[in-house]
Task: inverse folding
């Protein structure tokens, strides 16, 4: 066996006692110093067990390899009842499982809105009463290959983006984006909200479906890669991606529905977040490709329901590990302030799960002030995420970092070791049902979700 | 030379000699034209890359200078060459990886100013690129540190060909969005020393982990999984983690040194507690840090260098660990061209492990001297065996007898060599080669301490004011193996290893902080003999004698003879001669050999059963 | 911090400036010079990443390079971790008693490294396969040797291919000091050749190659100090003993199959303006010569590998 260090010029990585490092400095031995700190409290034994799991390294390679090599394509737009196992009286919602009793204002508002949309109640009071009585079955989007932004409520008549992974064959869904302001996903359910949803079901969805039939599948991986280089981070800024999408679809929209083309394109092009939803589905289908690899400590879902923040881990199947959702720190619209903010909500953290959003902040200098920081903080945020991720995305690159791939694939053990929690960019929903969006900012997930997942991973380690 | 591109001391340093003008190092071609009229300066610089946007800014600044008519500073792509050609510049040949500079100025002065400004701007770009990665965000795990140096140390630690470049164009994935000039960023050197330097020089990395024991596993595993050798200085690591790391290292081609590995030397670089050793033919595999230090220092004093010291951790040769690292280290040294002889220094291994090691040793092409403490050998005789195996006759090991009270100037020491044949050489000559051969009569080269004692000056009985009758010997040690060796050699006495886990929890190692040992020395009762080790080298107390000497003087003054084993090399930062002088001036008898020190101390204590 | 910029006339300052102590890693080639008694020296050249000192002594190396880790680790170098303070050419310095003093800076070695580490046994078959690879890589590189097409360079190639000591020495004598710069191309070629002959000769047990290295070394070092720059003369003396920079040693290891050749060669070729290419050319001539000598070549007209 040959050891290269015996004949090359030695470089040393030092972790720990600085005096040992200084002795190397005195010998002019080049070194990189690890700024080591103790792991999250109480994780010591679980870490040791999980790290020692002989399956871990290969499992993580496989899982993150699938996550980063998935090739999401937008293939169709279809009504939810056609594609999802969604019997009447069942709604999907964002985040880990939740009951009406524990649901926050915006979640309740969106559920009320969906109840009205589906004609299950005549008015707000009746809807709330039915929901409180348990007349509607609530299930997480994530249990149905689906993701939804903010409240993420999906009901039968809503139309969905269908994204297929050309590499591994998975499929994922996400609703159509309603725009900003008073919208269902922020818990608004007024007549204009319901009216818009009906228009989306009657006009927008069918026209997009027809257009996509003309264009054929759209390569979302390439589109996202381009958008990153155009200043999007694909969670809170989707302006470039939306433009690229509209550019791809516009001729086909005109061809498919000349009479409706103008209103459809005006709606899609006028909403800077229109791409958020197909982007989320692209992230979901990629993350799903990484699921169920025994021994893997890779996070395959991060999601919030407005009350809890939950994570799922590749090696632990569909189990959720939750902690209390935090209130985002950011900027507020108009006269709103932190007191109006609801705790963190939505499945849009699937973007961070797949290496976008807060993880790609360095790509989006235009919005750094919006989420409360300057460009150097954005770069720092992205850089720190390399600490807790397993890979750098081969296609999603950040020009400002020398086209380095975005940090992708959160590893539960690295979160515990470094104490660094995923950086999440998010919109802020009003606390009171029906308020809508009140701001946008950054939020940190609860450490307890990750330590709970770590403990479960430790239990799952086979006894040698 | 390096002034402009940040790298320096290259061979061609025309700037200094002025032979070919000051840009010689970066320019393949330079042309200056124009008489009286406008002046054109055209340069092709090789080995420099900057992104197109940065260069456009540079061009813009230069164009704005007074007296400058046109400036093109760009990578010499066909497009950019075309632009310069349209402006009427005469261009020499170049490749797309070269930097093209084309300046047109009103006169020579303006051209000179523009050229100077260009250098300043380009230097600024280089600094910006270099500083970006390294400084602000230190990695938080060994894994992240590895990633920072990615492409350098990859599996096996050998730099890979593809590690030299980082593709910067996003073209492949982004469907047409790409770095416009399809460039690649060369990772050679300016700032990221690890990345750059490693590309071609076969440099290799090692992780040195000294975080608290319960956390060492994670950091060490990062290294092992990346195929990187790791030295685990930390102690208190559960044995099952040690076994796991070492098994994993077998799969990844890495080596685990430790845990509780205090000493390693890799190609002359000392890690942990290590001495400044000259490079040489002897490779040491050490299950004991201080044991290896003693052997290596004696070899160095004898003028024989050491290629590497690979520590394996005190538990490696136990039945549980099975010598996994020892076997790998032996293999690695066997394959190392610089190592002509291997010394294996350890406490006696578990019997089944001993058998495996013996078999492995037999298969090696390199001769091995095995030193198992406690099986009748000591470290000094081991060093002597190594020297003989290399055909070198062991010298008499340096020693520095105490300067008796009242005689303070070391320079005026009486010639003890005469007074005590076979005793101590004059301190001034305590250098290998210059020492009177005191050991010639003794097989194994160890001077007979008995003779020294019978010579009078060091005989305990002859020391004024000491009680007669057998005394007790107190071994107050910082090095575990040195302590064990002294106990074996002396035969009896009370020996304490203050470097043991039991004494180091929550405090610095006694090689750094002598407080506990000073207390112990102060507690030695009159009439007993104190025996201490003082270990020099990297990581150790920068001036151990400063605090020990007064305590020694106090002990001697109250009737406690003090003997010191001074383990160090001539090159150690503390200065071996200066430390020896300070200790002997305080009244201690000082020996470079721990075995000789122990033997001497035992004689002073009046033991009969000294080995 | 400024070092050594005071006017040279003011030899003894009224108050000694505060000394700055630093440590580094020294080539064992410097050990004798460093450990002998203190000798005066002067700053021969100064760059941001290095200072060359000329020691007033007969022993070699009489030029010492004090460099930071980013610079090429020349065989006569003391490598320091911290940036080197500014110092002007001609400033006073001293070397000896274990210390290098430049102005108010005192440097001591806390590590010693071997500038001529043994290469270990090398398989001649592998070396023979490496030669065309190296030739192709060098030919493809935009970095060209300084003496391409020069008659003396051609003569050296031929002389070595034929193991003709006479022609080799004739060529070598023409090449010493030939070319511009601090290390003229001719010297770099010769240094590469000497190092390759010695290391590859030893590694393959080709006694004739080592013998040739000895004779060529004696010829080029005999009056090198009078014929080329001081730094280049010292580097020739180092090369005569097989001592070389890390970049050159890495290429030798690459040829022997102990690390990958291509990145090592790439790195070497980047050195200086032509230095790297010159050294690489010398290495190729040496490698080719070793192979020829093993094949029993050496008779006039018998050399088969003149293509290096």
Result:
């Amino acid at each position: 066996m040959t050891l290269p260090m015996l004949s090359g010029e030695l470089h040393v990585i030092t972790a720990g006692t600085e005096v040992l490092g200084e002795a190397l400095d005195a010998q002019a031995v080049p070194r990189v110093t690890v700024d080591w700190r103790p792991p999250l409290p109480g994780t010591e034994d679980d870490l040791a067990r999980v790290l020692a799991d002989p399956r871990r390294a290969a499992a993580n390679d496989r899982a993150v390899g699938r996550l980063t090599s998935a090739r999401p394509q937008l293939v169709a737009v279809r009504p939810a009842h056609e594609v999802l196992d969604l019997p009447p009286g069942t709604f999907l919602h964002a985040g880990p499982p939740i009951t009406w009793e524990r649901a926050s204002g915006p979640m309740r508002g969106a559920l009320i809105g969906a109840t009205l949309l589906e004609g299950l109640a005549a008015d707000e009071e009746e809807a709330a009463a039915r929901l409180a009585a348990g007349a509607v079955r609530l299930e997480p989007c994530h249990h149905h290959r689906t993701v939804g932004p903010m409240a993420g409520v999906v009901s039968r008549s809503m139309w969905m983006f269908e994204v297929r992974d050309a590499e591994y064959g998975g499929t994922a869904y996400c609703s159509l984006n309603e725009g900003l302001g008073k919208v269902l996903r922020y818990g608004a359910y007024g007549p204009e909200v319901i009216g818009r949803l009906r228009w989306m079901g009657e006009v927008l969805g069918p026209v997009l479906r027809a257009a996509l039939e003309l264009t054929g599948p759209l390569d979302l991986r390439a589109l996202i890669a381009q958008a990153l280089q155009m200043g999007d981070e694909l969670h809170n800024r989707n302006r470039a991606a939306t433009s690229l999408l509209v550019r791809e679809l516009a001729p086909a929209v005109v061809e498919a529905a000349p009479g409706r083309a103008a209103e459809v394109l005006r709606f899609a092009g006028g909403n800077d977040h229109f791409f958020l939803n197909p982007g989320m589905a692209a992230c979901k289908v990629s993350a799903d490709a990484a699921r169920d690899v025994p021994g893997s400590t890779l996070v395959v879902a991060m999601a919030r329901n407005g009350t809890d923040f939950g994570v799922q881990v590749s090696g632990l199947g569909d189990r959720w590990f939750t902690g209390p959702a935090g209130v985002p720190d950011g900027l507020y619209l108009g006269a709103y302030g932190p007191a109006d903010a609801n705790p963190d909500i939505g499945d849009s953290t699937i973007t961070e799960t797949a290496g976008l959003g807060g993880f790609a902040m360095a790509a989006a200098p235009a919005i750094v002030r919006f989420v409360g920081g300057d460009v150097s903080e954005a770069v720092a945020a992205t850089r720190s995420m390399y600490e807790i991720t397993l890979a750098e995305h081969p296609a999603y690159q950040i020009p400002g970092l020398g086209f380095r791939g975005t940090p992708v694939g959160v590893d539960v053990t690295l979160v515990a070791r470094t104490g660094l929690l995923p950086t999440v960019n998010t919109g802020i929903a009003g606390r009171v049902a029906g308020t809508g969006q009140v701001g946008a900012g950054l939020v940190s997930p609860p450490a307890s979700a990750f330590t709970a997942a770590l403990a479960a991973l430790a239990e799952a380690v086979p006894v040698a | 030379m390096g002034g402009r591109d940040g790298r320096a001391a290259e061979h061609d340093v025309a700037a200094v000699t002025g032979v070919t003008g000051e840009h010689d190092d970066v320019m393949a071609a330079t042309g200056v034209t124009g008489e009286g009229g406008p002046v054109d300066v055209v340069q092709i610089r090789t080995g420099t890359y900057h992104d197109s946007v940065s260069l456009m800014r540079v061009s813009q600044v230069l164009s704005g200078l007074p007296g400058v008519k046109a400036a093109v500073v760009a990578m010499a792509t066909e497009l950019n060459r075309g632009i310069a050609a349209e402006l009427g510049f005469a261009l020499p040949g170049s490749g797309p990886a070269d930097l093209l500079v084309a300046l047109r100025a009103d006169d020579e002065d303006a051209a000179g100013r523009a050229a100077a400004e260009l250098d300043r701007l380009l230097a600024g770009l280089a600094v910006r690129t270099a500083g970006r990665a390294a400084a602000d965000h230190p990695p938080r795990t060994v894994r992240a540190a590895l990633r920072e140096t990615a492409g350098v140390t990859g599996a096996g630690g050998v730099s890979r060909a593809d590690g030299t470049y980082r593709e910067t164009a996003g073209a492949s994935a982004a469907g047409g969005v790409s770095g416009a000039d399809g460039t690649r960023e060369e990772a050679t050197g300016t700032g990221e020393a690890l990345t750059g330097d490693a590309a071609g020089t076969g440099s290799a990395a090692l992780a040195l982990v000294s975080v608290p024991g319960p956390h060492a596993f994670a950091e060490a595993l990062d290294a092992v999984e990346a195929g990187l050798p790791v030295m685990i200085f930390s102690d208190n690591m559960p044995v099952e983690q040690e076994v796991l790391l070492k098994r994993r290292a077998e799969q990844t081609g890495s080596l685990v040194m430790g845990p509780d590995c205090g000493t390693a030397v890799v190609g002359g670089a000392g890690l942990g507690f290590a001495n400044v050793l000259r490079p040489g033919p002897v490779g040491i595999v050490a299950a004991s840090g201080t044991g290896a230090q003693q052997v290596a220092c004696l070899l160095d004093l004898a003028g024989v260098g050491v290629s590497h010291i690979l520590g394996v951790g005190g538990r490696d040769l136990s039945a549980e660990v099975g010598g996994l690292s020892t076997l790998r280290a032996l293999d690695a040294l066997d394959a190392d061209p610089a190592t002509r002889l291997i010394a294996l220094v350890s406490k006696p291994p578990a019997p089944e492990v001993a058998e495996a090691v013996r078999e492995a040793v037999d298969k090696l092409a390199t001769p091995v001297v095995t030193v198992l403490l406690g099986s009748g050998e000591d470290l000094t005789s081991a060093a002597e065996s190594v020297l003989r195996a290399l055909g070198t006759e062991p010298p008499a090991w340096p020693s520095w007898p105490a300067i008796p009270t009242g005689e303070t100037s070391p320079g005026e020491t009486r010639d003890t060599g005469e007074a005590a044949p076979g005793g101590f050489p004059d301190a001034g000559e305590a250098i290998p080669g210059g020492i009177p051969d005191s050991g010639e009569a003794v097989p194994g080269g160890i001077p007979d301490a008995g003779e020294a004692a019978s010579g009078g000056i060091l005989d305990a009985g002859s020391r004024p004011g000491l009680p007669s009758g057998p005394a007790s010997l107190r071994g107050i040690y910082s090095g575990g193996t040195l302590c064990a060796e002294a106990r074996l050699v002396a035969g009896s006495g009370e020996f304490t290893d203050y470097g043991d886990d039991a004494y180091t929890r929550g405090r610095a190692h006694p090689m750094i902080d002598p407080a506990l040992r000073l207390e112990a020395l102060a507690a030695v009762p009159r009439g007993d003999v104190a025996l201490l080790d003082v270990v020099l080298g990297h990581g150790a107390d920068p001036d151990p004698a400063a605090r020990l000497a007064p305590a020694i003087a106090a002990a001697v003054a109250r009737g406690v003879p003090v003997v010191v084993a001074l383990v160090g090399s001539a090159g150690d930062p503390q200065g071996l001669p200066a430390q020896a002088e300070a200790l002997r001036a305080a009244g201690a008898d000082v020996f470079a050999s721990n075995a000789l020190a122990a033997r001497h101390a035992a004689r002073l204590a009046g033991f009969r059963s000294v080995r | 911090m400024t070092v050594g910029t005071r006017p040279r006339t003011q030899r003894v300052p009224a108050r000694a400036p505060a000394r700055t102590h630093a440590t580094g890693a020294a080539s064992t080639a410097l050990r004798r010079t460093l450990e002998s008694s203190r000798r005066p020296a002067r700053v021969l050249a100064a760059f941001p990443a290095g200072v060359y000192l000329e020691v007033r002594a007969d022993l070699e190396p009489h030029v010492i390079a004090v460099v930071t880790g980013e610079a090429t680790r020349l065989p006569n170098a003391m490598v320091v971790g911290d940036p080197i303070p500014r110092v002007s050419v001609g400033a006073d310095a001293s070397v000896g008693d274990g210390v290098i003093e430049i102005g108010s800076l005192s440097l001591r070695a806390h590590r010693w490294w071997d500038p001529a580490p043994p290469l270990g046994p090398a398989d001649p078959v592998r070396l023979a396969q490496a030669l065309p690879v190296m030739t192709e890589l060098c030919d493809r590189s935009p970095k060209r040797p300084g003496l391409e097409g020069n008659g003396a360079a051609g003569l050296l190639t031929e002389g070595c291919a034929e193991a003709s000591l006479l022609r080799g020495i004739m060529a070598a004598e023409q090449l010493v000091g030939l070319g511009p710069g601090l290390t003229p191309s001719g010297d770099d070629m010769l240094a590469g050749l000497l190092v390759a002959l010695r290391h590859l000769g030893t590694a393959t047990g080709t006694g004739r190659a080592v013998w040739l290295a000895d004779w060529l070394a004696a010829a080029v070092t005999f009056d090198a100090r009078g014929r080329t720059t001081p730094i280049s003369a010292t580097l020739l003396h180092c090369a005569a003993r097989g001592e070389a920079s890390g970049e050159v040693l890495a290429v030798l290891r690459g040829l022997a199959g102990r690390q990958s050749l291509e990145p090592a060669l790439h790195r070497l070729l980047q050195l200086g303006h032509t230095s790297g290419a010159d050294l690489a050319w010398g290495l190729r001539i040496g490698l080719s010569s070793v192979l020829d000598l093993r094949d029993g070549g050496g008779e006039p007209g018998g050399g088969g590998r003149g293509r290096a």
User: Anything to note?
Assistant: The beta strands of chain C are 2-3, 20-27, 39-47, 50-55, 63-68, 77-80, 86-87, 92-96, 99-102, 105-113. Residues 1-14, 298-308 of chain C have pLDDT under 50 and may be disordered. Residues 253 and 259 of chain C are 6 Å apart (CA to CA).
